[in-house]
Amino acid sequence: MKLIDRIRGARLVGVLTGAGISTASGIPDYRGPDGVWTREPSAVNAFTLENFMADADVRREFWRSYRGHAAWRAEPNAAHRALADLDGGGVAVRVLTQNVDGLHQKAGLAARKVLELHGSMHTTRCTACAARFPTTEVLERGDDDPRCAHCGGILQLDVVLFGQTLDGEVLGRARNVAAASEVFLAVGSSLQVEPAASLCTVAVRAGATLVIVNRQPTPYDEDAAFVLRDDIETVVPELCAAVRA
User: Fold this and answer.
1) Active-site annotation, residues
2) DSSP single-letter state for residue 69
3) Model confidence pTM above 0.70
């Protein structure tokens, strides 16, 4: 059966998205040929929980990188919009995203249909009392190492850093989606970060057709029924349009 027919006939299409889907929106990825950590490997230190909590200079560098982050100005691109349109056209789509930029929701996909595996940059939480604040409010203060207005604790962007575990409830729901999917698309993810990448295995073991759309090879290519190396902003809209035709 052709891929288009499989998607068209699926009761549920799960979509795991990574940084590669947002590069066309002007947000650089991390591990690609021109990725943030490829160009500056030491930058990953600011995304490690132990370093972040122990070193004020690391925190200052982290907040400095997000203060002018391209994601604040980014708009959904054709791939984000195509997935939202696919769902709106009658194909049940659930997005499991490693991204923290909120562009799937901004493209029109209902928030309840998006699971943010690694959190969201749009909220900030206190590491001491767990209070949450809109990140824009925190940035507007202008503090280089912002502290909680309630208890004075260290503030952390509401994203998962290296050394932190994913929210168990969110991960459990994501695994349920992967297991229930008849087609599972992995779009723009290097599939090197676990446990998010292992959702591909969950889907395949449950009988799903795995489709990988990524410019670079991934560790899960051999498990996929289809591997598409074309430009993400081109292939995803074309695929979704063909399904809806």
Assistant:
1) 118
2) -
3) yes
